[in-house]
Write a structure and sequence with these properties.
Length: 268
């Protein structure tokens, strides 16, 4: 069980996903989690999950030990200015999941005394399967333990340097979309070779889960697992090589690099 009271400011895609994951994890009790939005009726359904729903950021922060900020980058300064005075009333930890905004930028508003972390989760956090990259700007070992414990209840955690946060955003957060597109394409191929769409999607998604489980449980290089499947002159190597002739790996790598360039352009 988590000991801290948690407030999530910004109940959009990722804020809501974090809240749903926390409820599913059973790591929090009734009354321990608050989610805010300016239009609170957009998250009213979360109150059915025993989450406190509010549009009052100041009150929600006052009631929290850990404040997770999950608004769009352009909304962040306004939120920080709004809660700044309350943040310092007692010892609190701020965790920003906002992409493209550095801890230096955040400290320009809240100063350098408040415990401050950046985290980059992905939307699989709603089912406790996030890959969350975390960096600490200010905070004790106990603060770090509290933040890690929060996200460890929601998937896997990696500690990274802040200058890799944009890369983490691309590989892990955007990565969900890239993996989804793989599954959709595999499903469409599955339909062409005879399956109904539902079973094609189920087979594609479970096969991807099997592949990732193999790598995560053995730590082996993907090519070692590919070698086991590619019989000489067989159908796997024929299909795989055709995919490479069509630019499969190249398309993925170029897509990652384009996303990374874009995120850096947006951050200025
Ligand atoms: N989506 C992802 O997979 C993902 C993953 C990791 C990180 N991130 C980052 O997380 C941030 C949010 O992304 P998102 O996709 O969740 O965006 P989003 O769906 O637009 O959510 C932002 C939420 O913030 C709320 N909000 C805006 N101003 C507010 C204020 N003053 N007080 C309280 N709530 C406020 C908005 O609701 P109202 O308009 O009703 O206030 C909205 O629900 C972004 O910086 C993004 O880069 C996203």
């Amino acid at each position: 069980m988590l000991k801290q009271k948690i407030t999530i400011i910004g109940g959009g895609n990722i804020g809501r996903s974090i809240a749903e994951g926390l409820i599913q994890s059973r790591a929090i009790k009734n009354g321990q989690l608050t989610v805010t939005r300016r239009t609170a009726k957009g998250i009213q359904d979360l109150s059915d999950l025993k989450i406190t729903v509010s549009s009052n950021n100041v009150k929600a922060v006052r009631n929290a030990d850990i404040v997770v900020i999950a608004v769009q980058p352009k909304q962040l300064t306004g939120v920080l200015e709004e809660i700044n005075a309350v943040l310092a009333e007692k010892k609190r930890i701020v965790v920003s999941v906002v992409s493209g905004v550095s801890t230096d930028d955040i400290q320009e508003v809240i100063g350098s005394k408040i415990a401050l972390f950046r985290a980059m989760p992905n939307t699989a956090i709603s089912v406790q399967q996030s890959m969350t990259c975390i960096t600490r700007k200010v905070g004790s070992k106990a603060d770090e333990k509290a933040v890690h414990s929060l996200f460890e209840n929601l998937g896997e955690v990696a500690v990274i340097e802040e200058d890799l946060m944009a890369s983490a955003t691309v590989l892990a957060a955007c990565g969900i979309a890239f993996a989804m597109r793989f599954i959709r394409a595999a499903s469409q191929g599955g339909i062409e070779i005879g399956f109904d769409s539902d079973i094609a999607q189920f087979i594609s998604a479970q096969t991807l889960r099997g592949a990732t489980s193999l790598l995560l449980s053995t730590g082996k290089h993907p090519e070692r697992e590919i070698d086991k499947v590619t019989t000489p002159q067989g159908c796997t190597i024929a299909g795989l090589n055709e995919m490479e002739h069509q630019g499969f790996s190249s398309a993925l790598i170029k897509g990652l690099i384009t996303s990374h360039k874009k995120i850096n352009d947006i951050a200025g």
